[in-house]
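Kindly review this record before class:
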Amino acid sequence: MKQETIVAQAVIDAPRMILRPLRPSDAGLMTLYGSDKRVADMTTSIPHPLPPGASEAFVANAMKPDRTEFVWAMDATEYGGAELMGVISLEQMDREQSEIHYWVAPAMWNTGFASEAVTALVRANPLGNKTIFGSVFQDNPGSARVLTNAGFEYLGDAEAFSVARNAKVQTWTYIRKLDA
């Protein structure tokens, strides 16, 4: 049996889950959920169809000691739920800033799990950020509510390229200032 190595990263408590570092065994559920076009279409980086090995490569990159993006699994096993309900990350920028990214499995949409994960991650502020940015596609108002529920304020409109859609998509950008 292959032993999993996890680079030190904070485990964060949320009301109905923990946010924990990714591990190689997460790749199977990540592939299942990431292969769903509805999930891929709401991200900038997940291709559709999902190529073989993409989830394994994502997990491997998330575990590298020199990473600039810190990724957590939304894990509800301690609460009788799924081992992986989605993924949330902070991508480091300069000047003590990060950009937050997240997705949840379609079965978990409209359940409050994404809002709980974002709120818990912001509250914990594991990277000591002064500012966290987030952007969502304008055709995904549910994700916009997740950010506003966590105290983010609207900053402006922009656009981002979606790999799954193979197109630029209009976005709303949000900001959350923190006392770091």
In short: The first strand starts at residue 12 and ends at 14.
